[in-house]
Amino acid sequence: VDYVLKPIRRERLERTVTRLQARLGDPRGAGLDALVGRPRDERDATRLPGALKWLTATVRDTVKLYAIDDVLAFQAQDKYTRALTRTDEAVIRTSLRELIGQLDAEVFWQVHRSVIVRATAIEVVRRDALGRHTLTLKGRADLLPLSSTFYSRLRGM
Q1: Could you give all domains of the chain from N- to C-terminal order, each with its CATH number?
Q2: How far apart are CA 84 and CA 92, in angstroms?
Q3: What is the pLDDT of residues 91-141, one digit of tens each?
Q4: What is the distance between the alpha carbons of residues 76 and 41, in angstroms, rounded to a whole number?
Q5: Is the dihedral of CA 4, 9, 40, 151 positive or negative?
Q6: Radius of gyration over every alpha carbon of the chain, rounded to an integer in angstroms
Q7: Which residues, 6+ apart, have CB-to-CB distance to 4 below 8 Å?
Q8: Partners of 55 in beta bridges
Q9: Is the pTM of this model over 0.85?
Q10: Where does 26-147 have alpha helices with state H?
């Protein structure tokens, strides 16, 4: 199962067409039943053959290139997304919805509708007096929201 989000990007459309052609040519076929029967996490982990490796981002009045291995988290803010590294914070124009499809699901987890974090960068999870959960990343002071659904999953690990 695949789909193309608007605005249509040439690279994404080419990957989709290539994937469909490969599936049509495969006599075994990874039928819809097989995909629907798998747990969501397993489908997400196999979403893209090649995960995102580099990121260009705006930092004040300059454009910087970041290796995706240096990024600790992404946080949606208005029309932009913040990319957080240990020492830097940058703004990118890619939505979380687009990013989640390009990131390795075993490395980056969407822990809230507005936050994607590198799993190994989570330092501590806290609960406030109102029962809301936040997390802190290693080497950063930012408090990022954590959904109650993901908190339950995290506790079960």
Answers
A1: 10-37 (no CATH), 54-155 (2.40.50.1020)
A2: 11
A3: 898 899 989 889 998 899 999 999 999 999 999 999 889 989 999 999 999
A4: 22
A5: negative
A6: 17
A7: 12, 13, 16
A8: 66
A9: no
A10: 32-37, 40-45, 96-100
